[in-house]
Amino acid sequence: MPLRRAVTRVQMLPEIDAWAKAIHRTGVVTQYAVLLDQPVRREGRCYWPLEVRAAGNVWRRYLVTPDGKDLLLAKP
Predict the structure, then answer these.
(1) Which domain holds residue 32?
(2) Of 27, 48, 64, 74, which is the most exposed, with the fewest CB atoms less than 10 Å away?
(3) Tens digit of pLDDT for each residue in 16-57?
(4) What span, in angstroms and rounded, lies between the C-alpha atoms of 36 and 33?
């Protein structure tokens, strides 16, 4: 369940939802990849990197806590 919460939290962001709908209309499938093997520690909390992808390219990268309550936009 933690994986589902993390992905759902990102999917429900207004900018991601609008982007995914626009990409879907072009026939491209969007993907959400949680990188469990690359956890990040910030301010004493553990975050999972989550990449939003389409056509094999990373569009945005977020850091999300396993419970899905905290979310950060990862800087490139």
Answers:
(1) 2-73
(2) 27
(3) 999 999 999 999 999 999 999 999 999 899 999 999 999 989
(4) 9
